Amino acid sequence: MASQINKGIGTLSKFIIRRDRIRIPLWLVGISFFTFIVPISFTELYGSQEQRDTLAQTMENPAMTAMLGPADLSNYTIGVMTAHEMLLFTAMAVGLMSILLVTRHTRGDEENGRIEMIRSLRIGRLSYLNATLLVYSLTNILLALIVGFGLYGFQIESMDLEGSLLYGVTLGTTGLFFAGVTAFFGQLSESSRGTIGLSIGFLLVAYIVRAVGDVGNEALSWISPFGWITKTQIYDENNWWPMALMLVVSMILFIVANYLNSNRDLEAGLLPSKPGRNSASVFLQSTIGLSFRLQRTAILSWAIGMFVLGVTYGSILGDIDSFFEGNDVLEQLFGSEEGNSVTTQFVSMIIMVMAILATVSPVMTVNKLYGEEKKGRIEHILGRAVSRTRLMGSFLVISIINGFVMISLAAIGLWLAGVSTMEEPYQFGTIYGWGIIYYPAMLVMISVAVLLIGIRPKITSINWMYIVYSFFVLYMGGLFQLPEWLSKLTPFGHIPQIQLEDMTWLPILILVTIAIALTMVGFIGYNRRDIGR
Amino acid sequence: MSVLQVSELTKRFGKFTALNGINLEVREGEVFGFIGPNGAGKSTTIRILLGILKATAGEAKIFGKDAWADAVEIHKRISYVPGDVNLWPNLTGGEVIDLFVKLRGGNNTNRREELIKRFDLDPSKKCRTYSKGNRQKVALVAAFSSDADLYILDEPTSGLDPLMEQVFQQCVMEQKQSGKSILLSSHILSEVEKLCDRVGIIRQGKIIETGTLSELRHLTRINLLVKTKEQITDLHVLKGIHEIDEREGVLSFQVDTEELDVVMKHISQFGVVKLESTPPTLEDLFMRHYEGKAGAGGRS
């Protein structure tokens, strides 16, 4: 019976490998490359223990613990540093790999009717699910081996064989775990979109739960798989048991997914899908209504995310001063300007990061216009009495409001949590002003998206690179000691730091002018070019 | 009175010429069939007519206005169904219909309910669950709910079952009877034959023939099925005879219309027992155009 139900698993596994022969190597190479490049660059940048200790001191605050997890900062070797700063993020990337690839072969194939064809052949009922899990288990084992032996292979002092292997195993086990999570959600949801949404939602919640737990409530981080990851303390204590725990949970998830899969109809989900509306609400019956409706869920999720981000950072504001007090090194690093507390320095950095993140959602809104075009749905709209200007304008309006809401929510969250934790909290107007002053830079980013869609829609992804560049240069610039002019290449680098210096209106004026000009060129281009696929 | 006028329309995508100086005219109150194989340029022409693509050269006018510059004005009076209906997976069919009707301006709820019933569509389902045929129904209901002067339909029945195809044909005939004009692109030839007053045939970006069906038939051949008392001789010597085939004493062949008289005189000598003639289908007409011309074999 058991052999019947998994019949053809070998052939299907080969078939899946054949279909993913580009994807799998790409992910493996990408993840290992970023894992390897970090310790190598750290040995160059932070060669001496003194330099590392300085960095360790900047890490000694709740914000960093929330972001990266705990580490033994008194023993900040290259190895500990690598594990501390990279392991969680890399694990999230591995989780993402598993989510996307497993969804593709479970719900994705099922939704598109491909599993139906496969099931009609001499193939067991659970073969496709288990072939998928088998292939991605092998992929993650391979990842563990590559990363484990690879890290050891660089022969960096403080990165021994045991630690390196544990590093690899941690990444691999995380991959297995999220393969299990995805296989599980793939049984609940009826669509691949839903599966990816639930799985990524789980990943983000797990990360946030760990962050809250690591800062305040130890018990809480025990719930989160990312809590287990930080408990490995690689290159320091080298704890293997959290990974054993994770492996056991992954196996349980595999079994549960199998059980659910064998007990449901093909193309059915365990979560019921509700019937929709018979007719459109008044709200939907315009292009603005449509452009909002299409992105409602995404915008709402981002809004919640931005608010939570603000609250997360706000909740640690009260501790910052006591952390930095009497610490000469840190005061030098952060509080060099007279009359400004370290907290203010810290807040100004946080707000800039939040502003860049708040740009992602509005840019996605504008890019949606091109996404719709590629999917062949724009001709329905333009084939009716709707001008191109009105169509693009609808997406732009939603985007501009979207950006305003995002940065506002982040600032409000920061202020709300700050009020409750600080002895002398900031005025609402102060924090909100520091946030909203980035709005013109966000408008420039939105206008770049409009420009690209108007004249060169095929290269809209350039805007994402620009945003990543902005983040990298402004946030990491200090860490990697990058020259000043690099930060002047992004609009965010031109916003006056009003918490540190007097307000100057000229850069704001110039940014707004640039935004208007780029938007206009974008509209002209969109009115002139062919629409199509 | 012409509703739609296309003259010397040319469209190039980079080096590729999709349309090479085509001419078309749809007159008021007629159903115009626009036929051709896949990739011939039907959808490109229609997209230019809708102002979605910009013509490289030539003119496309609807209601006497420029299809590109006055697109919005024109669209208030037309209804369009694309060949490939892609809809938003997270909206229901009913929502999409309402949105489309609203974006065009004007609303006609009664007609909407009636059409939903006739096309047997469940409007409360999300579009992601619709089959191709059902997505097409959504577009058709939206198109016919609107009160348009010109309907532009791009292969609108390619996913419909025969029953629904009939409903569609009824809808077209109703519109025609109330004086509306229709541009119907298709490669379902029986449909075009049934519905269209005039047809234009496009191939490789060129209009190769335009006219009423009867005008075009003079170009083509009549199919004959003949049984005679005596064996017919010397048939292949005559001009305009094609595809001779004999089965159980019954001879079948095609005759060029202009040679019919001569042929009939010839075969009547042998004592006709049985004679069947069938008019050429549009398919024959269609195929004929591809025979002997450059790159023949373009049966789609």
TrEMBL record, chain A:
Annotated keywords: Membrane, Transmembrane, Transmembrane helix
Residue stretches spanning the membrane: 24-42, 86-105, 126-152, 164-184, 196-213, 240-260, 299-318, 346-370, 391-416, 436-455, 462-483, 503-526
Top-rank taxon, per record: Bacteria
Designated name of the protein: ABC transporter permease
Organism: Ornithinibacillus bavariensis
Automatic annotation (TrEMBL), chain B:
Gene3D superfamilies: P-loop containing nucleotide triphosphate hydrolases
Keyword vocabulary terms for this entry: ATP-binding, Nucleotide-binding, Transport
Every ABC transporter domain range: 4-229
Domain of life: Bacteria
Any Pfam family the entry gives: ABC_tran
InterPro entries given in the database record: AAA+_ATPase, ABC_transporter-like_ATP-bd, ABC_transporter-like_CS, ABC_Transporter_VariousFunc, DrrA1/2-like_C, P-loop_NTPase
GO molecular function: ATP binding; ATP hydrolysis activity
UniProt keyword Signal, yes or no: no
UniProt name for this protein: ABC transporter ATP-binding protein
Annotated source species: Ornithinibacillus bavariensis
Classification lineage: Bacteria, Bacillati, Bacillota, Bacilli, Bacillales
